[in-house]
């Protein structure tokens, strides 16, 4: 089946408003919607060396027949309108969505002053996301300080995300707390934080490769709360050993959870991204079609 047919089929799925607080998507039986994207971080070497631009990534998204471009902001020359607006317009002119931006944060801040700075930083990125037309921002929980307990640090993260999430909601932006080690090393703690925040504008950025062990069990736990998904080549098994990620298995989890959103390929392996990403994207596109037609 041609990809255009897949898009036509999935376009019939109606959007469902978020509940008053984050809750599992699957039990109501809603139909999943899986769109593919590439993540700018895959081309970190090329962007850092200025061998590629963000416009080049838009062109690549078209060539690879994906729906979107997940923008890691680390290589933005600035965040002025002079850069952001032309990039948004170029993506739109090429039919490429900008669903998400990925920023650096550390919400495990031990003082009120530091937490206030973190909240303001996220608010500033909400402004950037709005100008780019992105509905999602990937945020990190951060590392638990040696002088604090995990419970204490979790409370700080909740405070930051409550405040920043409320502001994000006013601008139509969702914050996705990524499973990225530190305070978010375990799915149980991620769900504890998201549920305590209790806002539809604070959900999970599901990264397939970041749990340090027992990945599939934990991915299945957070899948119903996912606002965005970053696809990795490798996962860690029950014993912490790196293995090739069974993408089809994870896609079926997301489908069962009623996930509607992007699957952004974030490539981190040794092979140069310009060679690996096209091959892997073709594989991902094929699996999405297979899973959605099953």
CATH architecture: Alpha-Beta Barrel
Mean pLDDT: 92
Q: Helix count, per DSSP? A: 10
What level of helicity do the residues show? 40-55%
Total count of domains: 1
The third-level CATH topology is TIM Barrel
Order of helices and strands: HEHHEHEHEHEHEHEEEHEH
Strand order of the largest sheet: 1-2-3-4-5-6-7-10
Give the structural class: alpha/beta
Q: How large is the share of residues in beta strands?
A: 15-25%
In whole angstroms, the N-to-C terminal distance is 13 Å
* Poorly predicted residue ranges: 1-20
Radius of gyration, whole Å: 18 Å
- Give the biggest beta sheet: 8 strands, parallel, barrel
Tell me the CATH superfamily: Divalent-metal-dependent TIM barrel enzymes
**CATH C-level class:** Alpha Beta
Strand segment tally:
10
